[in-house]
């Protein structure tokens, strides 16, 4: 990897970036040599079964990547009002995703992530992904991508209960306390 000089000193350890991936439908991640174990937990999924598993995986593995590919070919109409509404939403989602990745990678593996955007939402990764599709859908005036944003939100509602049980099993009372203080989607922390 190479060093990003403007990031040195921001993190509790020296940060070397191997690769940074940014695309709708894929979680943007910063994989750090010093934080491999921390980054690995991003690939763990809560156990699902039956119809929920089929729906969740088909949404995540088929629909979202297809929407990402579709979005590449959508025209942007300069001067159209929806472009100027959608682009800031999309830009916000990108900033959120980078900050979320940094929060995730810089939190010890044995503790739940509770800083940064995780202070205002228990599921900021899902929130940023929904905003990404929503922003692109509005900017391109694409009902297909707006429908994908709705499907993505449905996917979240299927996965979140299992994910939160998984996180309670993994972190115990620390995660329960976090759930009591932090809204599921977005809001002001309760304490």
From TrEMBL:
Keyword Phosphoprotein on entry: no
Cellular component terms per the entry's GO annotation: endomembrane system
Xref: Gene3D superfamilies: 1.20.120.1630
Compartments reported by the entry: Endomembrane system
Molecular-function annotations in GO: transferase activity
Pfam families per the UniProt record, alphabetical: PEMT (PF04191)
Residue stretches spanning the membrane: 54-74, 81-105, 125-155
Keywords from the named record: Membrane, Transmembrane, Transmembrane helix
Membrane-topology descriptor: Multi-pass membrane protein
Classification via InterPro entries: Phopholipid_MeTrfase
Broad class of the protein's primary localization: membrane
Protein's name according to its UniProt entry: Steroid 5-alpha reductase C-terminal domain-containing protein
Organismal lineage: unclassified sequences, metagenomes, ecological metagenomes
């Amino acid at each position: 990897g190479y060093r990003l000089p403007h990031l040195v000193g921001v993190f509790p350890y020296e940060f070397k970036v191997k690769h940074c991936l940014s695309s709708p439908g894929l979680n943007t991640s910063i994989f750090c040599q010093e934080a491999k174990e921390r980054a690995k937990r991003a690939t763990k999924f809560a156990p699902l079964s039956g119809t929920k598993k089929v729906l969740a995986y088909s949404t995540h593995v088929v629909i979202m990547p297809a929407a990402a590919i579709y979005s590449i070919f959508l025209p942007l109409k300069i001067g159209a009002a929806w472009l100027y509404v959608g682009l800031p939403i999309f830009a916000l989602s990108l900033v959120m995703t980078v900050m979320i990745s940094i929060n995730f990678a810089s939190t010890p593996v044995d503790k739940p992530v509770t800083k940064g955007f995780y202070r205002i939402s228990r599921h900021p990764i899902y929130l940023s992904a929904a905003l990404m599709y929503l922003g692109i859908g509005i900017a391109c005036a694409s009902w297909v991508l707006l429908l994908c944003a709705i499907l993505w939100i449905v996917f979240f509602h299927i996965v979140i209960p299992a994910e939160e049980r998984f996180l309670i099993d993994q972190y115990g009372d620390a995660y329960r306390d976090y759930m009591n203080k932090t809204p599921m989607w977005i809001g002001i922390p309760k304490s």
